[in-house]
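Dear colleague,

Thank you for sharing your sequence with our group. We've completed the structure prediction you requested, and as agreed, I am returning the results in plain text so they can be pasted directly into your records. Please verify that the sequence below matches your submission; if there's any discrepancy, let me know and we will rerun it promptly.
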Amino acid sequence: MRAFLRILTVVFLATATVVQGQTYPDYQELFVNDFADLLNDEEEQGIRTKLERLRTESGIEFTVVTIPLMSDFDHNGAIEPFATGLFNYWGVGDATRNDGVLMLVSRFDRKMRIEVGSGYASSKDAPMKAIIDDEILPRFRDDDYVRGIQDGVTAVILNLTGSLPGEQGMNGFQKFLAKIKRGIDALGEWLLLILAPLLAIPAQLYRRWQRNKPRICPTDGARMTRLSEQWEDSHLQQGQITEERLKSVDYDVWECPKCDHQTVEGYRAWFSQYGACRSCGFRTVEGDTTIITSATTSSTGLKRIDYQCHHCHNTWSATRTIPKKSSSSSSSSSSFGGGSSSGGGASGSW
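Please find the predicted structure tokens below.
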């Protein structure tokens, strides 16, 4: 009996040590806590708006959390006990109904979990697993964390309520019309994806015709010839050569065979990350953005954009104000409702 009590004491002390070592992040707000910085401000706000409306219309608290690693919080191993502990530490959901939901993404562990309140029992385990496997993980495997989180949030809300945010309170016919509209909108996106290349063809053909049409020398009226790529660089400025190397602008050089008159014509790339330099004027500048202070619902944020020219090597920085995050009446409460989880939900890895 004494030996059994001694073993029990050792187990208890070991468990207590583990619990003491475990830490959890404190939440900054109720809806999106992007500690891994996977979302930009606009993407965060889009998700936040959905979750705020869900809370307003149904009373369900649903929060999204991203972290770099669980080991940052002294946890090594499975994501399930960490997610359950975090859920209960924050108290997600109504304390009476226990209907809260937590979506946890541990980026560099490549693990995620949708933890649900104990009020659901095991009824949401299979649906959450299907959402993870069908909607989220395929995106995560392509490193598209934003789309994975967005699609996952939408699918969870639809499963919990049978409606999307904004459709609560609609009658059956209104929901039917809303569903048709979503289908049309989705079809519109697909049509845009299909038609965009087709619509670009006429513009590309026009540019090709424009670049290849005969040029007449303004000096003597002779027909000019276009120099080959290997010869045209000797007639371009160094900044123009840099633009061609960066593929921000492509140049043609036309020359008159009689009087040697030359014409240089530039064609901007359809899509380019490079802008015009304020010093040399060439489209050889790129910017790198750093968030200095994140925006909150009570204050604006600040970001710094560092510019560098790849031609004249001029560098400069500019600061921009990040607008406040919008706040609705649903987010007036600064704390969760005290709900708890008994470990229900589903997990996935990629």
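Summary note from our side: Helices lie at 2-21, 41-58, 79-90, 125-140, 145-161, 172-212, 229-232, 238-246.

Kind regards,
the structure core
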